[in-house]
Amino acid sequence: MKKYDVFVFGTGIAGKVVARNCAQAGLAVAIIDTREYGGTCSQRGCDPKKIMLAPIEAYEHASKLHGYGIATMPVLDFGQIHQYAKKYTQGIPAKTEEQLQDDGIACYRGEAIFKNPHTVTLNKTDIYAKTFVIATGLITRPLTIPGAAFLKEYDDFFKLLKAPEKVVFIGGGYIALEFGHMLARAGSKVTIIETGNRILNNFEESVTLKLQKITEDLGVDIILNARASSVETINGRYVVNYGKEDGIHQVTASEVFNTSGRIPAVKSLKLELAGVVTSKTGVVVNEFMQSISQPHIYACGDVSSMGLPLTPLSGLQATIVANNILGKKEELQLPAIPSAVFTIPQLATIGLTEKQALQQGHKITVLENDASNWFNVRRIKSDGYQYKIILEKETGAILGAHIMGAAASDQINMFAIAIKAGMNMEDLKSTIFTYPSWGNDILSYK
Questions:
Q1: Segments of the chain with pLDDT less than 70
Q2: What end-to-end distance do the CA atoms of the chain give, in Å?
Q3: How many angstroms separate the CA atoms of 353 and 414, rounded?
Q4: Residue 111 in 3-state DSSP?
Q5: pTM
Q6: What is the pLDDT of residue 335?
Q7: Reduced to 3 states, what is the DSSP secondary structure of residue 357?
Q8: What distance in Å separates the CA atoms of residue 216 and residue 404, rounded to the nearest whole number?
Q9: Distance from C-alpha of 194 to C-alpha of 188, rounded to nearest angstrom
Q10: If we measure between CA atoms, which residue out of 184, 255, 248, 187 comes closest to residue 222?
């Protein structure tokens, strides 16, 4: 039987940080992955998605300024976009494994499952570890409808060699919106089927509705209050059947993606044999990122009950896990966490929505405006710009910020800094920013 001090499941950012920190401290560490090394974000998520977005953003800028200094329109080549992303990702697995091995970490591939709280089995071989770390991330939530086998998942997007003629996304979350915006601009006819009454239900309603209108104006068909009931093939095409109050409808497609959500990737580990408590949000952990039922088993990143699908948070949690394994007791102190949807324009958020603030009993002041006629929007001829800031009425403390605009993902970081520093809105607006930047726009929020 092989024995280690630490055995890590998952080679994404969370797993790598824990493994390398523990190995560099002199512990015997092993790591395993069921797929290529490097995790989701670097190979089939955040990074290649942004790489593929770059040429589309350039095309968008050119199209908006065509006739205003841009004389000839460029042509989008989705195949070249695919190769651009592939060039970035292709060396990651080997480089990741090499780095781990250089740190003296034993690298495994395959499906290791728990046999008991301190032992896993891999290919009929038992492996013992004093401490285990679960950093397996998220997987696509399966849809149990007839024809579900025809559905593509988020990572299949990165295998597309050309923009499909017609694409259906089942689920109106950030993955569908980001991919949908790219494909619509690349020439695909995009349809999004959403069970709720609007897209991006977790985001502030008013700014989301603004993005929804822009998305529809782009040519994306958003079908709300609808539920996909089955997928079938007819004459070489997919037919998606979906139900609404007035009955069953159909839409045809070249490709159909399941973007109904993502769930913690824990089922195959058989954590129940280790006595680990899980919930729909993942491995249930305490403030030290330990399993509440098995303290020698940790979870970090998206797979923990304190996780969000955000790479910076995964790295933070992983550092805390490594510190705790090494005897430096450290609790997770979650700051206000910004997140963004990389559509064109972007949507970004931090903190509470207006509804959440009122539900929590806050007396609030709301700063909200459609700023679509402001200078920075006119300068690049963007499609729109809207913000909504939630403040504590008495103190002006920033409870939440929600921005839909061309630079929303960067603007929201200023609110993250302000909230962490304990600045209220007047403090933030007393800051001098470069002019005429998107950051300087915040001074005019009222």
A1: 307-312
A2: 66
A3: 17
A4: coil
A5: 0.93
A6: 79
A7: helix
A8: 15
A9: 19
A10: 184
Nearest to 387 by CA among 371, 399, 376, 363: 371
What pLDDT does 206 receive?
95
How far is 259 from 348, CA to CA, in rounded Å? 20
| Whole-number pLDDT of residue 41 | 86
Helix (DSSP H) and strand (DSSP E) numbers for the chain: 13, 23
What are residue 148's phi and psi, to 5 degrees? -60, -25
Name the token pair of 133: 């770390």
Q: Cis peptide leading into 345, omega within 30 of 0?
A: yes
Task: Give residue 389's pLDDT.
Answer: 98
Geometric angle at alpha carbon 254, from 248 and 260, rounded to 5°: 60
What is the Cα–Cα distance from 252 to 235, expressed in whole angstroms? 11
| Host H or E run for residue 132 | strand 125-134
Residue 327 makes CB contacts below 8 A (sequence gap 6+) with none
**Could you identify the residue written with the tokens 């800031």?**
389
Helix axes 46-64, 174-185, angle to 10 degrees: 40
User: How far is the CA of 373 from the CAs of 66, 67, 344, 437, in angstroms?
Assistant: 19, 20, 17, 15
Q: Select from 216, 251, 88 the least CA-distant residue to 158.
A: 88
Residue pair 225/216 in contact by the 8 Å Cβ criterion: no
Strands (E), 112-270: 113-116, 119-122, 125-134, 138-140, 166-170, 189-193, 221-223, 227-234, 237-244, 247-253, 255-258, 262-264
Q: How many CB atoms lie within 10 A of CB 119?
A: 17
Provide the residue type at 256 as one letter: V
Query: Which residue is listed with tokens 């090494």?
Result: 326
Q: Whose structure tokens read 């102190």?
A: 333
What six digits make up the tokens of 130? 């004093």
**pLDDT for the residue 310:** 58
